[in-house]
User: Fold these one by one.
Assistant:
Number 1:
Amino acid sequence: MNFNVASPETNEELFEVIAANQGRNFRFGAGCTDLLIELKKQPEKDLTVINLGYLNDPQFNSIENNDGSVRIGALVTANRITSDLTIQERLPVLYEAANQLASGQIRQVATIGGNLCTASPAGDMACALVALKAECEILSANGKVRVVPIEDFFTGVRKTDLKENEILRSVQIPVNNSGEKVHSGFIKVGVRRSMECSVVSLAYHIQITADDIITLAGIAIGSVAPTIKFASSACEYLTGKRFSEIGSSESEEFATKILEYASPISDIRASAWYREEVLFNISKSIFE
Amino acid sequence: MPTDTHKITFTINGRKMERTISPSLLLIDLIREELSLKGTKPGCLEGECGACTVLINGDAISSCLYLAVNVNGKEITTIEGLSTDDRNAPFDPVQEAMIQHGGVQCGYCTPGMVMSIKAFQEHCEANRFVPGREEIKKAIEGNLCRCTGYTKIIDAVESLFEGE
Amino acid sequence: MQKELKVIGKPMPKLDAGIKVSGKAVYGQDVVLPDMLYGAILRTEYPVAELVSIDTSKAEQLAGVVSIITADDVDVNNISYRRDHPALKKGRVNCIRDEIAAVAAETPAIAREALKLIEVKYNVQEGVFDPFEALKDDAPQINEFSSHEKNKNISHPFHYEHGDLQQQKDKSAHIVTSRYFLPRMTHACLAPCAITADYSNIDNRLTLYSVTQVPFLYQRDMAHVLKMEPSRIRVIQTVIGGGFGSKLDMYPYEPICALLAMKSGRPVQITFDREEEFIASPTRQKMVIDLTSGVDEKGKFTFRVAKIIMDNGAYTSWGATTPFVMMQTFSSMYQMPACVFDADAVYTNNVYAGSFRGYGNPQATFAVERNIDLLAEKLGMDKAEIRLLNANFRGEFTGQELEFNTCGHKDALEMVIDGVGKTRKENDKDQKRYKKGIGFASMLHVGGGAKIYPSDGCGTILKMDDYGYLTIITGSSEIGQGSETVLGMMAAEELGIGIEKIRVINTDTDIKPWDVGVHASRTSFVAGNSLLGAIKELKTKLSPKAAEMLKTDEDDLEYDGGTVKSIKTGESIKIDKVARQIHFKGPNDLLTVSHYYEPGSKFADKNFKGNISGAYAFAAQAIEVEVDTYTGNVRVLNIHMAQDVGKVLNPLGLGGQIEGGVVMGMGYALTEELKVDNGYILNPSFHEYKLPTACDIPEIHFYPIETIDEAGPYGAKGVGEAPLIPTAAAIANAVSNAIGVEIDSLPITPEKVLQALSNKS
């Protein structure tokens, strides 16, 4: 493993480094926890790692609470997400996903941007963000910004919509401040109770009015398809229903709709059969 | 491709240092090979076992998945930095608790375990928080131990907060 | 009457805990010698192939490469007790671990780079990966050195029997037959393997900084391979980062490292990375057990017939002898009128199995205890009651001629039955999704060594200096289990000196006297008895002088508080003063003694009968689980573990052994399996090979039972292996109890559970 490292500290330096590396082999490194494992296994030739560890830009580094949204910089670590009170209260699905990611040592350095850009179908925070219908703010080396819905950000296994001269700057999550209740959580299924890569994951974020009506539902599933999937028909199914009136037949219908988005494979961790069975079961469990 | 070298300055166990390193050098190699501090243990080199845990500015991280260039301007604490010079009290309270509660068997996971516990203890104290056993388990989830079954280690951590 | 104990039985922190918590302990990978090179091993790309050619010329050209060896460059004997394993392979490879060449270079990176430049041409062949296929007549001979006793592909066959099988079958009201599948589990020591070899051609001596747990057998094996005299090999054990049986055999990397050092004339170090550790370390035996058991109408067991096929892998390690231990469980755990046992270690092209804490016993216990639950169900009898009814007892002389002079089996069962009754009550709500269950299992294991090698003894040398400090030089080894602390405690107890004045030297074969090694839970028992014998001899020097100085009889002396005291007068004298008097005044002697202890056990006869251990350990577990019927995850809630330990020596160390063993057993039960497909290892990482984490552990309730076995030091028996042995069996029984399905294999993965539930409905 042998590579060069460039450590831009300002946006200008960042743009320069990106521009200078166009047409060459470069990778971004934030927490580097996935990147270093990958490079140890498959060293790349003539590689430059653009190290974001010293990038000093609040738009990359901070969590901002705006009216109606939370904006999380791509370089915010999983640990900062779990200790943020707004996220704990308003976005439990994201809190739980961040808290179940790998180990404390990894959460200390692993970033939300890294978790998204790795584009693993098993990405924990990524799955939560899909359920939350987050938007990705993408910055290009010429200074232009574009915003894409998170579902369009993932284009395949370990593939994203990012162009060669682009970098993910932040994610923006809509937050309903009307005082509605949220039923929100992240279910990660693996063999152990910790240190797992999910075999199946389910992120759900449901908003309920004071008089029990579901106004918004976001459901995303991980590790059961080439990318994380947003289960829109399951969400539509819930919207408008009374939350307390979802009984076992409704929850099974809901789970069946989720299953339509799954196309799991069998691998060393589990069979496709198991993944589908479990996805069905945990889907209905969120109403139990 | 010839790689550049990088000059970094950092503090390790209270000592200020300047080093010229290769950019892809891992922190664990800086610590073990370049600085010959062998207390930090290589266990898996992929962030799965926690044996190489050290503190950066007080936070526990896996030194096998951390670029040495990223310690520039920071403070590293390794297991060697926890012991004191006091002949009558050579250990940090975390180390002492691990000894007294039988949290050490083969000892290979111990330095990393101790560093994780140290970071957790300071975090709890800063937040005036007394953890229960489940929280303690979560705090050491990233440190595998093959000998002890963790119970005595959890006892040791619990003892740090007794009387609080 | 035994005198009151002041040190033994009280919690004592480990003597080596201080250096370990400070990061100052030197493990194999921390050794640095002047001018040291780094070695790396080229392993085969294919499990089975003819080696057409090996071209090292490009690698030799790489700057920094010092020496390269292949089988053609070395004159060595095979390793393994069956002598069927060449350290470097010639002509063909037989499994994915096989070593083809090795490099010594200036840095680890250069050594690894050089491996990539070695060109090997393979003629890839079909392998045999199923032991049942290997037993067929038309199977190829897998290991060319196989000795053909029974079948060309059987490395080691075992047959044992006692009792009148037909008579017992006739007596049986119910008979059950099941086939059980036990997986490969690997030790996954936190410290990967490491060795440093230093050869001096000045005196033709080889020094090995090694992680072996059996240094004297290792010295002899190494000498055999290298064709050297054993005494020219000095084995220095570094601090060992986990053993669990994995370091009982010598493996190819060790003589390879020595050969590199001999060839290059410089010290060479080889360390494994985690992937190599998973690929190149041994495993617990994968096996298939067919077990038929019977019970009479009152619930008394009648017979067991066990037929076991073990996947030996391509070469033989000590692990092939696990039937020695397994047959005891079939023949003697619970009262057993008749037993027929057959086990064959069968060669395949899989990775070879080795010895692992419990030594076959977890597999045997799994089969026996699952069958017991099935018998109880047939009888409609309570699963605790059937076990109590058949429990072993003190004074029992088993069909295999084991003599249970002490036996806490029934007490252990009663303790855990009572314990689980209490915790079960607390969690008694069964829910739709989560189902709770309880499982029981017992275990029988050697607890006073195991007479397999020509001697099962241990030597001790003691040296008390002029200042009253004691050095214990013991043949035994510390691998983290805490035996050196127990030895220190015994000396402190007997000589009345503080533990801080005691030093244990146990790492250097040039210094320490012979010991067979760490295995069979023997160290506290055998090394402890050896130490007590040595202390007795030391006192034959100390006591006469002290009596003379105190003007009293030797019988009147008490060693206490750093002094020797007259019980009658209360007058005392410091022990160091006695030592100086002996040295300088008369008889002008030094306080050095040596003692060799050989346990009173016997060798088994050719039919495997005989009392091979100085004492036997018994344990019982009751485990409470909760099964998530949505995901198949099994959560262990409570483990109740009662064990006949003879006598508690160090409660702190004992508790650690118990908890560690139980959690290791939980890994075997639920999460751990080294997956091998067509000879390739699929999960060589901690990411995919799943050790239990802190978040997975249950509450562990431990009840030590003291039966005071007169053969053991202070009545103690061996403890190290026992806690892991019944755990998987008890968990399987608990899962079966929770969801009403048959569990016939390990690990009990969530997928297996869900599959079983789905098949049931």
Number 2:
Amino acid sequence: MGTRDTREIYGGSLGVGRFLRERGLRGTIAYLREHGVRGAVENAREDGRSLLGELRGISVAYLLLAPTLLVSAVFLYYPALEALELSFHQTLFFGGERTWVGLGNYETLLSSSAYHESVAITIAFAATVVVGVMTISLIVSFLLYEVDWGQSGYLIAAIWPYALPPAVAGIVFLFLIHPSIGTLTAVIEGATGLEVDWFSNGRQAFFVVAIAAIWKQLGYNVIFTVAALNNVPATLKEAAELDGIGRWSRLVRIYVPLISPTLLFLVVMNTIYAFFGTFAFIDLMTQGGPGGATNIMIFDLYRNAFEFNNHGLASAQSVVLFAVVSVLMYVQLRFSDERVHYGA
Amino acid sequence: MASIELTDLTKRFDDVTAVDGIDLEARDGEFLVVVGPSGCGKSTTLRCIAGLESPTAGTVRIGDEDVTAQEPHERDIAMVFQNYALYPHMTAERNMTFGMRSATDFSSAEIDRRVAQAAATLGIDDLLDRKPSALSGGEQQRVALGRAIVRDPAVFLMDEPLSNLDAKLRVQMRTELSRLHEELGTTTVYVTHDQTEAMTLGDRVVVMNDGRIQQVDTPQELYDYPSNRFVAEFIGDPAMNMLEVTLEAGSSDPIVRHEAFTIEVPNAPETEALDGGRAVLGFRPEDASIADRGTSPTGSVPDRRRTGRGDSERTTGPIEATVQVTEPLGDTLLCYCRAGDDEFKVQTAPRTGRAAGDAVTLTLDADRLHLFDLETGEAIYHSDTDRERRAATPEP
């Protein structure tokens, strides 16, 4: 009787995987317990299939994965573990001198009100950037998608800021909206009556940096969103037109659900960007100020590491940052599982 | 319900003219099928009626209203697409009601009533809670039809609705569409490239090619009296045979001379004008028959599908030909025959044991001959004179 089952195990190039998928781990173990590995191999041999061939197939797969695994291990996993270790030490001279302090660095962070403020600012900043980028880029993409004339021109204009390196974009934006010499400053002051003084006004600084970060990231979002919109069958738009669905209703109730896998991807990417990729803007435009109003976690830990030379504390901060972003990713993916519509 | 009237409708895309000044009327309650090869402009015509394309020139009228400048949803139409165009993230019921709930003033109770009714008509009661991905192609198409029905529009527009279904389901849905139209009586314009669908569904059939209407007629008239070569070859499967011939005046009837045979064609008017001219002789594969060996070639045509074709059983011939290839179709045997340099198809009774290489003598049904102009392809003459008689009796 085992013959048919082993054919299931060894049939196909990655038959083991399929067998596992179909029976689950428990089922597979039960099967192997009943027949023994030897029995399974012999049954497979009777079927004229070679277990060796299967193993060779698997080893080729790992061989092909090796470069990626190697690079990840050297540049990602090893430094991450190293940082974790460093976070339990007090350090001098770039970590050259270390003293074990256990959870001391974490205790420092836990009791530091400045750090609490930094965490709160970071979360508010990330929320502003993610929501801002997603909303604006969705609207811009929809307009781009719907426009009949000059689409590629608009597309280039929308994507262009993304082509700038963050540092250049930061400087460009700094001079656009510099409180005294910015080219847009007079215009904004004239139009809104506000006084642009974000060098001293913390609230303004927060929004200026957020807007710069949003502006920079729009292009990236527009590329993906326009591509996703173009994948929606044209007849759906026509069906909606025949149904008399208005434009915005069409966007929100038809397009958004249909491109939700792409939007989820962008939420994740934008979150990572807001937490890590906005460093250059802070560094160039506000240095975390005024009064810590833009002192987001990534900038705070950079200063601890490279200005105050406290690598142990900075490592602890990066571990916390990692944990926060991980939890956010988990929540986002978990939450969206029920809402994202795949297979449009 | 309403009629549809297209006047001088033209649609150009850059330098391509998709629809070239057509005039067409779909009568109130009619099932009008537009058929033609890919790129003939049939879908563009339909999309102009729907308002999904705006015509370059000409007008579209639905009922008594000029709708040329109206948005699609203002036209009181419903459209069914080839790929169904269901919203993938909505259940079948939501698909059917989404437009009505978001863009009309119908009460919830009225919408529910209509959905229930449409679902019962289409037999999709059990599927209403499912999303399109959980439905088969045929079920999806039914839901798409349901979406059209619940709106109770003046006009149904259907763009190749059966083309994505497998062959068996297509035949089944075809019958259902017929039944549905009988039940609802809504004016329908149906676009297809499939001539069988066109013939079986249409009250009248519009044959299009190169953005122009070739002929508008009832299916049988199209089949019997194609107004040009294109229609003759497009309608009917296997297609009509076309042989280049010379016309001559005969003793009583005119004569058609081919390099391999000479036959008389009856009832031809005005042949003097054509004397010595070149033309194309058309006859359908089933209108040629292989004479039994040893009998006179001017005998009677074996009785095949001759019902409803008047009382004449005159034949003309003979044509000597050689069988090249045979294709057994079960109910008939299709023989590819060669006479001179020309090849043509002959549909004969099955199980006759004809094989490649056989020399055969053929006769043609003298009432089923067509002559077309060699240059323009326009029909010069059909040997059947029943048409005048038929035309004289009023349409039902």
